Amino acid sequence: MKFFGLQKLTLLDYPEKTAATVFLSSCDFRCPFCHNAAQLDDDSSLIRKSDVIDFLKKRQNILDGVCISGGEPLLHDDIGDFIREIKNLGFDVKLDTNGQNPALLKRLAENNFIDYVAMDIKSSLQNYGKAVGIENFNTCQIEESADFLLKGAIPYEFRTTVVRELHESNDFHLIGQRWSGAASYFLQSFKDSDGVLSKNLTAYSVTQMNKFCDILRTYNINANLRE
Questions:
Q1: How far apart are CA 103 and CA 93, in angstroms?
Q2: Helix (H) or strand (E) holding 52
Q3: What are the angstrom distances between the C-alpha of 47 and each of 6, 50, 79, 138, 162?
Q4: Residue 176 is part of which domain span?
Q5: Which of 51, 116, 150, 175 is the most buried (most CB within 10 A)?
Q6: Residue 45 pLDDT more than 60?
Q7: Is 142 exposed, middle or buried (0-12, 13-18, 19+ CB in 10 A)?
Q8: Domain count of the chain?
Q9: Which candidate, 103, 57, 58, 52, places its Cα nearest to that of 82?
């Protein structure tokens, strides 16, 4: 397991909790709008697991939880051992995932290793390949993960980063039809930066983003904007 970074305090990433965020390296997607391009193929570890654990020991009874993000955390088969150490320190655990490893996601949830999941829905299934940068992408694993969360076995949210060049209104109709009834769905506007994988991408206006939320709501989805 390779550790790319540690954010020592976040009030935004874990709903209603003070938390730290751990970033793991490597990802199996190549989303054009990705802000963490440096982590995609990086096999180095900028910090040690022991440093992370030592920090968390000092934050017991101060922080409520730990967010595990990436890259893609579920690429690391030994993530369960790491989470066990965190849980033994008394922290709740939030997992960020792209949904490509439903078997490991289910195992972690069923073993009560994770308390909250944020899963990215990159686009409608019909346009998923374009959104993740992989031609002829098979969405079966994405659907399995999302369907598992939709059953409500663990608190969750779905989220989509919306990019003008990749998304249009029909994508949100298709998403709504496929995952009708989702308990929590956030749309967030693309924000350009030097680290974005592809250049010349742009964001929609807030007005249009609200219209996309309205589309999702017609399918009984609790949709909101996130800054």
A1: 18
A2: helix 49-58
A3: 8, 8, 16, 34, 32
A4: 3-226
A5: 175
A6: no
A7: buried
A8: 1
A9: 52
Which residue in this structure is represented by tokens 């219209």?
Answer: 211
Examine the pLDDT at 38 and tell me if it is beyond 90.
Answer: no
Instruction: Give 50-95 pLDDT, tens digit per residue.
Output: 999 999 999 999 999 999 998 899 999 899 999 999 999 999 999 9
Separation of alpha carbons 105 and 226, rounded Å? 24
Q: Which residues pair with 177 in a beta bridge?
A: none
Of 165, 162, 177, 149, the residue nearest 208 (C-alpha): 162
Which residue is listed with tokens 């989303």?
31
The phi, psi pair for 95, rounded to 5°, reads -110, 130
**Angle (deg, nearest 10), helices 79-88 and 102-110:** 20
166-208, pLDDT tens digit by residue? 999 999 999 999 999 999 999 999 998 877 888 889 999 999 9
> Tell me, what amino acid is at 162?
V
- Distance CA(169)–CA(203), nearest Å, equals 14
Report how far residue 167's alpha carbon sits from residue 7's, in angstroms, rounded to the nearest whole number. Answer: 30
Domain CATH for 21: 3.20.20.70
Distance between CA atoms of 41 and 25, rounded to whole angstroms? 8
Q: Give Cα separations from 135 to 48, 126, 153 (angstroms).
A: 35, 12, 32
Task: State percent of the chain over pLDDT 90.
Answer: 83
CA nearest to 160, candidates 131, 120, 206: 120
Amino acid at 51: D
